[in-house]
Amino acid sequence: MEWFWALFALLCSIGAGALAKWAWLAPVRWKAQGYLDNGLGTRIDFYESSRTFTMLNVGMRTFAVLGTVFVLLGVAVALGWIWKAI
Fold it and tell me: Is the pTM of this model over 0.85?
């Protein structure tokens, strides 16, 4: 059963890593476009509301750092379960 939990922790870590990577790269794409559009009519333009745009970029980067912390935590938990199984 320990191997199952180790695998589960590693899979959760991979998912958190994918979300962290997306959250880190999304502001780069937004900055290159110059605007953020949610597809439902709301558009945040960098030149019209630069403060909101910057706050969203910082928020996404904060989310990415938090996701990286969860990746490290998940790997540590998986190693703990592997150690327990051995």
Answer: no
